[in-house]
Write a structure and sequence with these properties.
Number of domains: 2
Order of helices and strands: HHHHEEHHEEEHHHEEEHEE
Distance between the termini: 93 Å
CATH architecture of the largest domain: 2-Layer Sandwich
CATH superfamily of the largest domain: GAF domain
CATH class of the largest domain: Alpha Beta
Low-confidence stretches: 1-12
Length: 268
């Protein structure tokens, strides 16, 4: 009698050793502020749910992971080992909850970025299904002059500093890119006129639109938050949510700074 063999392709790929399984779970997190549920971890790693839960608990106890109402995230030990806990670690930590709230309320992809000379540096990217269509990555860069993140921050810098950062020749990323310094300054004036809301459609990436607002300190912008959708997304409707999130992060980082007026509040 011939006995039919039952194939179990997923199980044979699951590592046996505890070290390998722990590594598999840590590798499941795509970025420093990524949040995964127990179900997410079990699905990504192909580990049994009970096994994943047991290892997650062990990783929590030794600070490789953290846990909140949003799910599991990389802990301080993992961030320090990966070189992520730099001078932006406090910004990331304070912004994290607000980024996830924005994503849950809008269903759009959320970015956190900082200025690096004439570029923006993506610190975090959080999103659902559409996120894979957005050609950005944590740790990556994009020109500041044609991104909502960049303009949101450039708008609060002196014009001469803007010119120094972006340089003489503005790179045209698409056929819609504002690639002229005079036009850029005009756009930055419009950002300030909208109380800090920056918008761009298909200027950095084709068929991608963004709205952003800066996180500001007394000395100037230190970061920005953006919502990203396709070019037809009515981002004007969600712009107030981005602006409020940026102001909330500013308030938590600098309680005495009034970002609406751009000055430190002093007690009478």
């Amino acid at each position: 009698m011939t006995v039919a063999r039952v194939e179990t392709p997923d199980r044979q790929d699951v590592p046996v050793s505890m070290v390998e399984r722990m590594t598999l779970i840590l590798d499941a997190f795509p970025g420093p502020s990524a949040r995964l549920t127990l179900e997410d971890v079990a699905r990504i790693t192909h580990l049994p749910r009970s096994t994943a839960h047991r290892i997650l608990d062990q990783l929590l106890k030794v600070s490789w992971l953290e846990h909140s109402s949003f799910g599991y995230s990389l802990g301080p030990r993992a961030l320090h080992l990966g070189g992520v806990a730099d001078d932006t670690s406090e910004l990331r930590a304070v912004a994290s909850t607000h980024l996830h709230t924005l994503m849950l309320r809008t269903g759009l992809t959320v970015h956190l970025g900082v200025l690096d000379e004439g570029r923006i540096h993506y610190l975090d990217k959080i999103g659902a299904r559409f996120a894979t269509s957005v050609p950005s990555r944590v740790g990556g860069y994009a020109p500041a002059h044609c991104t909502a993140l960049g303009r949101a921050m450039l708008a609060w810098l002196p014009p001469e500093e803007v010119d120094e950062r972006v340089g003489e020749d503005l790179r045209a990323m698409t056929g819609n890119t504002v690639a002229d310094r005079r036009a850029l300054h005009h756009e930055l004036t419009r950002v300030r006129g909208r109380h800090g809301i920056a918008l761009e459609r298909s200027e950095c990436f084709d068929d991608i639109a963004c709205v952003a607002a800066a996180i500001r300190a007394p000395e100037g912008p230190i970061g920005a938050i953006s919502l990203v959708g396709d070019s037809s997304t009515p981002l004007e409707r969600v712009a107030p949510l981005v602006l409020d999130a940026a102001r909330q992060v500013t308030l938590e980082l600098f309680p005495d700074f009034d970002s609406r007026r751009g000055r430190a509040l002093r007690s009478v």
